[in-house]
Specification:
- This protein has 434 residues and is of the alpha/beta class.
- It has 2 domains: 317 residues, EreA/ChaN-like  fold (3-Layer(aba) Sandwich); 92 residues.
- Helix content is 41%, strand content 15%.
- The chain has 16 helices and 10 strands.
- Strands 1, 2, 3, 4, 5, 6, 7 and 10 form an 8-stranded mixed beta sheet that branches. A two-stranded antiparallel sheet has the order 8-9.
- The longest helix is centred in the middle third of the chain and has 20 residues.
- The N terminus is likely disordered.
């Protein structure tokens, strides 16, 4: 995998600066295939965990001796992999999913040697978090802001967030974001400081003009006098091109970080370019940012990627522009069977709106031949969730399911897109706590 990373960095002219961590992870290899081939043989009952481990109270089983072993069977599917993508509904607004993902992530870190945690969060803010961690000036609010409102505003995520930050502070884990987009509810660095970072490599009038253009865009402070039109885009594009050229004269850690942020911003601009066919460019940019992140980390760092299933999918999505790749597609090509894409869905309940504000949406009853209905067709009422591995998904074939988006059923062979799906009996809606 390393030659792929190096080739990409050389192509983009980004200086190679490796981040050295103090701690090392110990990977434990567990055999896969512990689940049976029939749906009824792949039950996963989620339970309260003790001893300071994150729990999922509202989906806890009432009886228990073997539930821990059953959860371990799911973890065993992931434990020996090098890259695990933890997906979720595209609305990012299901309480039970986020709590379960946090539990799985923590287990993989503490038991399976995973040391890198990458979020579908803004790349720039996490570069700043890493700088602050290196300098001993980081804070939990800064870390939370970098993760962003998709997750950090939810009570269900807060315990994991605090735990993960403590692990990063102790240099037990490495953290990063890979989304090239800018702006948003949080991500204060990209809104308040990134314009200065990018324009700092310029001089004179160019610095002033570009700082103003980038700051307006990142805060989306457009108005009638300053619309976001072709001219505004052209100014941004020219500023980033000039900045990219200017960074080649510098070297060192900070120059490398600045060059990477400029390259990411250029990729973001390509993804929003007016009058251009840009399908899939955001996923491509996330993959490119992932490669840069990995080039800074120790070789062979095992990585968790916290994202949506539409990005985690290991094959191009049906109905997309031909040739449009997902983040998971790029990862599967590079890592093959060492990568694993895990999806989530739910039989019933409700989900919220992105960011935790807005309407609560009830999950409509699924059709009887759906992924969700079939998962629970022979399950006792006490079972809170079921895990369907790739073999089971292949046996089910083309069935309706809503693992990509809780609001839409799609009829597909789910084994083409994910390696396994956890189906919850009841999802609950997120509500932001701040």
């Amino acid at each position: 995998m390393k030659p792929v990373v190096t080739e990409w960095l050389v192509m983009r002219g980004v200086p190679l600066v490796r981040y050295q961590a103090d701690a090392t992870g110990v990977a434990r290899s567990h055999g896969a295939g512990m689940m049976g081939v029939f749906v009824r043989q792949v039950i996963l009952v989620l339970v309260l965990l003790s001893g300071g481990t994150l729990s999922v109270p509202s989906i806890a089983a009432t009886s228990a001796p073997q539930t821990s072993d059953e959860l371990s069977a799911v973890i065993s599917q992931l434990c020996s992999r090098k890259v695990v993508l933890l997906g979720e509904d595209a609305n990012h607004a299901g309480t039970q999913t986020i709590a379960l993902k946090a539990d799985i992530a923590r287990r993989l870190i503490t038991s399976c040697g995973f040391r890198g945690v990458v979020f579908e969060s803004q790349f720039y803010d996490f570069v700043d978090v890493q700088r602050a961690l290196d300098q001993g000036t980081s804070s939990l609010p800064q870390f939370s802001s970098a993760i962003g409102a998709l997750w950090s505003h939810y009570a269900e995520f807060k315990p994991f967030e605090a735990w993960l930050y403590a692990q990063a502070l102790a240099k037990h884990v490495l953290v990063a974001g890979i989304d090239p987009q800018v702006g948003g509810i949080d991500a204060r660095f990209s809104q308040e400081k990134l314009p200065s970072v990018i324009s700092s490599v310029l001089g004179g009038d160019d610095r002033v003009r570009c700082h103003e253009a980038i700051a307006r865009h990142n805060a989306w402070a457009y108005d009638d006098a300053h619309p976001f039109d072709d001219a505004a885009f052209a100014t941004l594009d020219q500023c980033l091109r000039t900045s990219a050229v200017s960074t080649t004269a510098h070297s060192g850690v900070e120059a490398g970080r600045t060059a990477a942020m400029i390259a990411s911003y250029q990729a973001y601009l390509r993804s929003i370019a007016p009058h251009a066919a840009n399908g899939g460019l955001r996923d491509k940019a996330m993959y490119e940012n992932l490669l840069w992140v990995l080039s800074q980390w120790p070789k062979d760092t095992k990585v968790l990627i916290w994202t949506a299933t539409v990005h985690a999918a290991k094959a191009p999505m049906e109905g997309n522009t031909p040739g449009q790749q997902t983040l998971g597609t790029y990862i599967r090509k590079a890592w093959g069977g060492d990568a694993y894409a895990l999806g989530f869905s739910a039989l019933g309940g409700a989900y919220g709106s992105t960011g935790g504000h807005g309407q609560v949406h009830p999950l409509v009853a699924p059709p009887p031949d759906s992924l969700e209905a079939l998962a629970f067709s022979k399950a006792p009422d006490r079972e809170a969730a079921r895990f369907l591995d790739e073999k089971v998904l292949k046996r089910l074939g083309n069935v309706p399911g809503r693992a990509f988006n809780y609001g839409t059923f799609q009829t597909v062979d789910w084994s083409r897109y994910v390696d396994g799906i956890v189906v919850l009996r009841t999802e609950t809606a997120h509500a932001a706590v701040d």
